[in-house]
Amino acid sequence: MATLIGERHSQAIWRDYLELTKPKVVVLMLITSLVGMFLATRAGVPWTVLVFGNLGIGLCAGGAAAVNHVVDRRIDAVMARTHKRPLAEGRVSPTAALGFALLLAVSGLVLLLAFTNPLTAWLTLASLLGYAVIYTGFLKRATPQNIVIGGLAGAAPPLLGWVAATGHISAEPLLLVLIIFAWTPPHFWALAIHRKEEYAKADIPMLPVTHGEHYTKVHILLYTFALLAVSLLPYAIHMSGLLYLVCALALGARFLHWAWVLYRGSQPHAAINTFKYSIYYLFLLFIALLVDHYLVLNL
User: Fold this and answer.
1) Quick one: 47 exposed, middle or buried, by C-beta within 10 A (0-12, 13-18, 19+)?
2) Are 120 and 69 within 8 A, CB to CB?
3) For position 8, what pLDDT does the model report?
4) Cβ partners under 8 Å of residue 49, min gap 6
5) Residue 257 — left, alpha, or beta (φ > 0 → left; ψ -120 to 50 → alpha)?
6) CA 105, chain centre distance (Å)
């Protein structure tokens, strides 16, 4: 019996540390990083860059997420969505979580320096500090525009993937960053509307708390229009072809549909449904970019 309890405890601790990395978020980031790599070249990405480059980016992202858990542990404890997180319930100490975050970040940067190039490592470090320090430590509590300003750090993965494969920055990966940057506000504000009371209880100045739901819904709709326009730019600059254009228009129209439903208040649970669709939107949009790129290559 004692052995069984010990095994369960070890399993719980392992899962707690995995949860600190926000694995679902990291997976979505790595998908955009992979797309950035594959779009950067038609000659193929070296397997070392493909494997260790993405592993390094993922480890750094996980380290930033762990810092977020530490800084937000008191907020997490009063929100229904997050009150069972490892630090909020005391299953992992802040000191242990920070040590884990440092280990992940250093390991990730070492991999990037060893298998990609210094520019990728420096950009990844800047992204890590932007999310963990500037957004989590300051902006989140300072302004209702927190997610707009801080969203730049979360938009970096396709640029990191591109630079890992090529060693330089160009206009195309910056356009991919712009797409995620425009996507972040309607994505996150939809969740903020759904969790408005919790953010108010935690004293976090999210836009629905400070300016009301109607104001936020208007801005979600406006940002979704902006996102649709930005998402068409890869086709406009001949970075992608007709297949991507059709997918971008269809996915963007569906996003606009949900933003309009949310604005009108015509369906229950519209906020959380908009949030969920936004995740599928970004995933499918980047997959469309990738498929279009290699379809054209093979024609």
Assistant:
1) exposed
2) no
3) 39
4) 37, 115, 116, 164, 165
5) alpha
6) 17
Q: What percent of the chain has pLDDT over 70?
A: 95
pLDDT of residue 297: 52
Measured distance CA(12)–CA(22) in Å, rounded: 16
Work out the number of other CB atoms within 10 angstroms of the CB of residue 277: 18
Phi/psi of residue 287, each to 5°? -65, -40
How far is 136 from 130, CA to CA, in rounded Å? Answer: 8
Residue 233: which of 221, 250, 249 has the closest Cα?
249
- Summarize pLDDT for 51-78 with one digit per residue, the tens: 999 999 999 999 999 999 998 888 888 8
Whole-prediction pTM value? 0.89
How far is residue 273's CA from residue 259's CA, in Å, rounded to a whole number? Answer: 10
DSSP of 206-237: -HHHHH-HHHHHHHHHHHHHHHHHHHTHHHHT
- pLDDT value at position 79? 80
Type of residue numbered 11: Q
The pLDDT tens digits of the residues spanning 149-199 come to 878 888 999 999 999 999 999 999 999 999 999 999 999 999 999 999 888
Q: Given the structure tokens 């963990």, which residue do they identify?
A: 132
Say how many residues make up the chain: 299
Burial of 272 (0-12, 13-18, 19+ CB in 10 A): middle
CA distance 217 to 235: 29
The beta-strand segments (E) located in 109-250 are: none
**Of all helices (H) and strands (E), which one includes residue 142?**
helix 140-142
Residue 95 to residue 56: CA distance in whole angstroms: 23
The token pair that represents 263 in the structure block: 């604005």
